[in-house]
Amino acid sequence: FDRAQATLSSLAIYNKQAAQAASTAAARDFRTARRWIVGIVALALVVGIAIALAVAAAIGTPVRRMVDFANALAAGDTSREVAVDGRDEIAELGRALNGVVAAEREMAAAAERLAAGDTAHMVEPRGDHDTLGQTFAALGCTLARVVGEVGGLVEAARAGDLTVRGEADSFEGAYRDLVLGVNATLDAMAAPIAEAEQVLSR
User: Are residues 146 and 176 in contact, defined by beta-carbon separation less than 8 angstroms?
Assistant: First the structure.
């Protein structure tokens, strides 16, 4: 019995030591795993921040450049263009802004031609929604009609026919007033001539 009791005591001591060893190993493994997890999470955070900063710089810089460009364009500066490189959305935006600049330059050139009296080169609207282009085209047509109407009156007067009058009602605003003014001028010129003819015919 004493021998069995001693054996059981030895087994109990062994089991206790084994349990302590296993507990120590488990605690050590846990600390090691925790250090690895913390290290991996920290590395992932550093890599994520680096990637975020790189992406922000890659996107933010061209976007800021295009915002500056758009502000200059809104202020009427059509001398600049966006440097476009690539096929991503940023590059597509740059190409679209350059298209807006090209259209603005075309409208400016058309305005300069109209201001110089050139009504032969009409503006072609770029589509049904091109309000500015359609307005410029209508302006060019109206100016051409006014020039033609007044020019016809001048030619008739040069030929000695002071009975021709312009169709003022086919125009609006200042253009109508201009034709009416020319008609009134012709009336003022024709009246004394008609009176002189009546005197001479007596």
Answer: no
